[in-house]
Amino acid sequence: MSVANSTNVKRVTTHVLQAMKLKGEKISMLTAYDYSMAKLVDSAGIDVILVGDSASNVMAGHQTTLPITLDQMIYHGASVVRAVERALVVVDMPFGTYQGNSKEALASAIRIMKETGAGAVKLEGGSEILESVGRILSAGIPVMGHLGLTPQSINKFGTYAVRAKKDAEAQKLLEDAHLLAEAGCFSIVLEKIPAQLAQKVAEEVKVPFIGIGAGPGVDGQVLVIHDMLGLTQEFSPRFLRRYHNLADEIKGAVARYVADVRAREFPNEQEQY
Ligand code: KIV
């Protein structure tokens, strides 16, 4: 099958990701929330762009992901989709739009798909949200699951510590992964769980697993773009690799601009009409 190599596809689809798992090719995923960043991330060859509800933290400055609304996620999603030519775009369903009522879940997912043009939605949780997952899937909307540390449940967990270290929670996670895959989720994010458990889940359950703080034994990796570029400085979990220190670069550039303006060195003769 010629689509199995993600580097030669014009458009990454859920089927391409499945084929990548079968071939043992690793899947790359990053978040993006706006047009300009999404254009850069897509043109650098990323497989999946997640319009994460982490926008609530890194774009809006909230402490948790809970406050972000469906309208705000749709705004971010549509901005990203306008920029992307190749990657699969997945939009997070925000807290409160799918947990309580599967009909409301479907209505929220339909709004996301219609108003953003994204390729899929992502929901947090396992057996508790299975009815919503089933209803969304039955409308032909691809669903990505999310297990382990699920930030929308922070008020239940109380901390952002590693999840599923104890046997009972690890067992529930494995069962939830089976349930989501059998329901038809095309992929599942595993956040902040022991690497051994993540590897076991990814070997046992036949959909692509994308890890964040879940070790190397999964089918792909995801990071929040602000963290991996070093735009955020205060957040430093063990799993985070910083590929740049953009915060210092941006502050340096702004400081040079301020100095030039104050010294009347900007604009110069070539920079005017
Ligand atoms: O919202 C988000 O950015 C996420 C990733 C951390 C997986 O869900």
List key phrases describing it.
single chain, 273 residues, alpha/beta, TIM Barrel, 2 domains, eight-stranded parallel beta barrel, 11 helices, 41% helix, 13% strand, binds 3-methyl-2-oxobutanoic acid
Q: How would you describe what is shown here?
A:
This protein has eleven helices and eight strands. The chain has 273 residues and is of the alpha/beta class. It folds into two domains: 6-242, TIM Barrel, CATH 3.20.20; 247-273. An eight-stranded parallel beta barrel has the order 1-2-3-4-5-6-7-8, surrounded by seven helices. It starts with 13 loop residues before the first helix and ends in an 11-residue tail after the last helix.
CATH class of the largest domain: Alpha Beta
Which outline best applies?
globular
Query: Secondary-structure element order, as H and E?
Result: HEHEHHEHEHEHHEHEEHH
- Count all strands and give the number: 8
Q: How big is the Rg?
A: 20 Å
- Strand proportion: 5-15%
Query: Bound compounds, please?
Result: 3-methyl-2-oxobutanoic acid
- Widest sheet: strand order? 1-2-3-4-5-6-7-8
- CATH fold-level topology of the largest domain: TIM Barrel
- Average pLDDT score: 97
Integer tally of domains: 2
Count the DSSP helices.
Answer: 11
Can you say what the CATH homologous superfamily of the largest domain is?
Answer: Phosphoenolpyruvate-binding domains
Structural class of the secondary elements? alpha/beta
| Oligomer status | single chain
Terminal-residue CA separation: 57 Å
Helix proportion: 40-55%
